[in-house]
Amino acid sequence: MTRIALIRHGSTAWNKEGRMQGSTDIPLDEEGLEQAKRLGIRLSDEHWDLIYTSHLSRARETGAIIASQLGITNMKEDERLREVSGGQTEGTNEAERISKWGADWRQLELGMETEVSVWSRGLSFIDDLLAEHSGKRILIVSHGSFIRHLMKKLAPEVTLTEHLKNTSVTRFNVKDNNWDCELLNCTVHLAEM
Length: 193
Fold this sequence. Notes:
Strand content: 15-25%
GO molecular function, one term: fructose-2,6-bisphosphate 2-phosphatase activity
Order of helices and strands: EHHEHEHHEHEE
Number of helices: 6
CATH architecture: 3-Layer(aba) Sandwich
Binding site for substrate: 8-15, 58
CATH class: Alpha Beta
Number of domains: 1
Low-confidence stretches: none
Strand order of the largest sheet: 3-2-4-1-5-6
Distance between the termini: 34 Å
Mean pLDDT: 95
Protein name: Histidine phosphatase family protein
Shape: globular
Keywords: Hydrolase
Organism: Chitinophaga tropicalis
CATH superfamily: Phosphoglycerate mutase-like
Helix content: 25-40%
């Protein structure tokens, strides 16, 4: 059995401003750094073999903080874990999108990455990961929209009723291509913040 935890990166200034980040490389803010530290402390009671992160700094920084707390030196980056591209919407907030393209902006072709593209790169990563690290305990630090899209394919029976929170943990036990979700969007480590 392989254990995989999908982790959303810590918070950024653009998260707080409601700006579409997509593939734009926005770093963690001070709160995001603290969230990652708290998650690292929480995970230090568990055994994890390695960490994969998106190449974008907000995920990479989150992963590095967790790795240092866990004493993991085997952290790898993979561009396939990047956030879903928002095309022309990146850097804008909802009011700016509505002002510029109207209330139905989501229906327009604005250069946003398609769901099929996200699934293709996400499932390619997962196939490679399971082939190389079967039976390991793996942390994956990525992005909210990417993780939601990937979960639709890996565990369609799991229903997310809210956005993934910053530094949330969603944990699966994987055996024979069955993804058993044992923890969903959990942020108990942030309770005191």
